[in-house]
């Protein structure tokens, strides 16, 4: 078996002809898969509000150098958060600080929306 499913032969159900089984309980996955799932959920928590704020700033013609660098910082903070979370190297206090940095970027974009309105 290749990919993330490394189950031994014969342990897969017969109704999984391609060898892929989606486990309904994320707690039963390997630890790195659980961390990837949590990183994905954290990404959704921040990316959707940030995307809405960026669209609002664009609609209100409120882009400045600050919003430009905020978007770049948000991207790289999210990459660092995901990589650190998945490989398990970003622990307390680093991972929460990176996550907080993402929310600070959202706050800066929200302030840009308010100032542009």
User: Averaging pLDDT over every residue, what do you get?
Assistant: 85
> Approximately what portion of the residues adopt beta-strand conformation?
under 5%
Number of helices: 3
Number of strands: 0
Tell me about this structure.
The protein has 117 residues and is mainly alpha-helical. Helix content is 64%, strand content 0%. The protein contains three helices and no strands. The longest helix has 29 residues, at 31-59. The protein is elongated, with a radius of gyration of 19 Å. The protein starts with 30 loop residues before the first helix and ends with a helix. The mean pLDDT is 85.
Which SSEs are present, and which pair or pack?
Layout: H1 31-59, H2 65-87, H3 94-116
Helix pairs in contact: 1-2, 1-3, 2-3
């Amino acid at each position: 078996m290749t990919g993330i499913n490394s189950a031994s032969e014969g342990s897969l159900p017969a109704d999984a002809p391609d060898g892929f089984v989606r486990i309904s309980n994320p707690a039963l996955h390997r630890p790195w898969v659980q961390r990837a799932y949590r990183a994905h959920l954290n990404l959704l928590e921040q990316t959707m509000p940030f995307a809405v704020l960026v669209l609002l700033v664009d609609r209100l013609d409120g882009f400045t150098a600050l919003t430009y660098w905020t978007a770049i910082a948000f991207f790289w903070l999210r990459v660092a958060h995901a990589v650190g979370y998945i490989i398990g190297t970003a622990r307390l206090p680093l991972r929460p600080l990176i996550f907080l940095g993402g929310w600070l970027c959202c706050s800066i974009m929200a302030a840009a929306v308010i100032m542009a309105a």
